[in-house]
Design a protein that fits this description.
- By secondary structure, the protein is of the alpha/beta class.
- The protein has two domains: about 5-170, 3-Layer(aba) Sandwich (Rossmann fold), CATH 3.40.50.1950; about 195-400, CoaB-like (Rossmann fold), CATH 3.40.50.
- The protein is about 30% helix and about 25% strand.
- It is built from 14 helices and 21 strands.
- It has helices at about 15-25, 45-50, 65-70, 70-75, 90-95, 100-110, 120-125, 130-140, 165-170, 220-230, 255-265, 310-315, 330-340, 385-400, and strands at about 5-10, 30-35, 80-85, 115-120, 145, 150, 155-160, 195-200, 205, 210, 235-240, 250-255, 270-275, 280-285, 300-305, 320-330, 345-350, 365, 370-375, 375-380, 385.
- The strands form six sheets. It has an eight-stranded mixed β-sheet with strand order 12-11-8-13-16-17-19-20, sandwiched between helices. A five-stranded parallel β-sheet has the order 2-1-3-4-5, with helices on both faces. Strands 6-7 form a two-stranded antiparallel sheet.
- Strand 6 (about 150) and strand 7 form a beta hairpin.
- The chain is elongated.
- Bound molecules: cytidine-5'-monophosphate.
- Cytidine-5'-monophosphate (C5P) binds near residues 281, 324, 325 and 339.
């Protein structure tokens, strides 16, 4: 049994929220509906109250409710918040952090996991503004379900339909201890400190030029986000990337490998370290002045950068679970096994980064993983970087259970 705070947005699919309430009640869940002004044009508070067998909330200015149950309390009394249907307008308000009515105020005040089930016209769904807002919500740690594809109430065809209420309920992590909590809430990694490095490093050549690599930071950021959602205290040490900080994560921005090394060491102790960053192995001696064309041919001299993962493997404060990544283009498994032993890591998460530009893992949204541990090699199916992150956090949680 779970307690669901159901926020109903003002779209034609709102009638399906009523059906969802019926299914949720049948499954033994408690549902507290909240209707936006728009939603009340499609469904009535009265019918929702009857189906939910619960009071229905509509207005922030309903003083009686503030006395009986303040909006902060209402936002936290549930185990899970579901926005269904989530209109383009409601999604935009969530992404911007607006609190203009009861629904948006509750969404801003909640400390519980939030799932969003969007439903809207196909063009509205595909609009760059909506897609930008969806990406923002996901980066904030909110689960956004993909809409179904098919004929729509407006006569068009495409993605934007609300999935079946039963499918939405099944997608809620109501029974999962590992996916439900938000950072700071009780979860499978509550009380643990998880240290994550992510992104590339930049090694300066002169005041305006750097040696860099194609790492986007997406996989490391997704791992930091999943760890925070599992209740961990997360320190994310990020190289130069333009990604938003996941909700509940403490971020330290660095530029060079040496700075990343120093930030990792001063962030110890940690229970888990996941070293995802693509750290430059070598750094040139940078020129104080911008190098001119006429200065060539260039003769750069490189010194070795510290190996952060190996340094942690030898550290007196070595994290209890030390995880490295290995981006390889050939002999993926063999190289990963060697790396695990050399760097004294517990696990190496190996991935093949070969592939034509544009389809490479580096910068892409998908990853295919081989988890190399003392127990052998576990091959994971190709998945999104968010799914890989969640699976890795589940595996980490198992180590502590
Ligand atoms: O040796 P290689 O760079 O392939 O090893 C990859 C793993 O080692 C990754 O976990 C990466 O974050 C880590 N690493 C590091 N410091 C370096 C080089 C790599 O922590 N200087």
């Amino acid at each position: 049994m779970a307690r669901i705070l159901l926020i109903i947005g003002g779209g034609i699919a709102a009638y399906k929220a009523a059906e969802l309430v019926r299914h949720a009640r049948k499954a033994g869940h408690e549902v507290t509906p909240v209707l936006t002004d728009g939603a009340q044009h499609f469904v009535t508070p009265m019918s929702l109250a009857a189906l939910a067998e619960s009071p229905v909330y509509t207005s922030l200015w309903d003083l009686k409710d503030e006395v009986e149950m303040g909006h902060i309390e209402l936002s936290r009394a549930a185990d899970h918040v579901l926005v269904c249907p989530a209109t383009a307008d409601l999604i935009a308000k969530m992404a911007a952090g607006l609190a203009t009515d009861l629904a948006t105020t509750l969404l801003l005040a909640t400390d519980k996991p939030v799932t969003v089930a969007p439903a809207m016209n196909v063009k509205m769904w595909q609009h760059p503004a909506t897609q930008r807002n969806i990406a923002q919500l996901r980066a904030d740690g909110i689960t956004v379900l993909d809409p179904d594809e098919g004929p729509m109430a407006c006569g068009e065809f495409g993605p934007g339909r609300l999935p079946d209420p039963e499918a939405i309920l099944a997608a809620l992590p109501l029974d999962s201890a590992t996916t439900a909590p938000l950072a700071g809430a009780e979860g499978s990694l509550t009380g643990k400190h998880v240290l994550v490095t992510a992104g590339p490093t930049h090694e300066p050549i002169d005041p305006v030029r750097v040696i860099a690599n194609k790492s986007s930071g997406k996989q490391g950021f997704a791992i930091a986000q999943a760890a925070a959602q599992a209740g961990a205290r997360v320190t994310l040490i990020a190289g130069p990337v333009s990604l938003p900080t996941p909700f509940g994560v403490s971020r330290i921005d660095v530029t060079t490998a040496q700075e990343m090394h120093d930030a990792v060491m001063t962030s110890l102790p940690a229970d888990v370290a996941v070293m995802v960053a693509a750290v430059a192995d070598w750094r040139p001696q940078p020129s104080d002045k911008k190098l001119k064309k006429g200065d060539g041919p260039l003769d750069l001299k490189f010194s070795k950068n510290p190996d952060i993962l190996a340094a942690l493997g030898d550290h007196p404060d070595r994290p209890g679970l030390l995880i490295g990544f290995a981006a390889e283009t050939d002999d993926v498994i063999e190289n990963a096994k060697g790396k695990r032993e050399r760097k004294k890591a517990d696990w190496i998460v190996a991935n093949d980064v070969s592939g034509p530009p544009g389809e490479s893992v580096m910068g892409g949204d998908h990853n295919t993983i081989h988890l190399v541990s003392a127990d052998g090699v576990d091959d994971w199916e190709e998945a999104t970087k968010h799914a890989v992150a969640q699976k890795l956090i589940d595996r980490i949680s198992e180590e502590f259970s």
